[in-house]
Amino acid sequence: MRRFWPVAFMLVLPAHAGEPMSAAEFDAYSVGKTLSYAVGGEIYGAEQYLPHRRVIWAFRGQECAEGSWYEAGGQICFVYEHDSTPQCWTFFREEDGLRAQFQGDPDATELSEVAQSRNPLVCAGPDVGV
After folding, report:
1. Which pLDDT score is estimated for 52?
2. Using CA atoms, how far apart are residues 84 and 3, in angstroms rounded to an integer?
């Protein structure tokens, strides 16, 4: 019976046990897409992934911010026009999309991909409709 233990153990591992995505894997998965993310089932925001590691991010209902991403120490780090402080995440590929774990957050924010599109991100703005 002992020889079946490793297989049985693997079957009960949580989905979070996967390997982090590399920068190349993340780029191949995301470029050309707009991904929507949720925290605890609540929509958090969406990001459009452009060529050359450029992005456009918007929190739900807020204005968009342009930025870029780079790999640092196995993490995917984002910097935006409004804040040059790196926001670093570890991304995992799950059966139903990406999961991202924020680095440097004492509450360990975790995002889950809930939708993806090939359409550009729709941005709110102060001058829309003027």
Report:
1. 98
2. 52
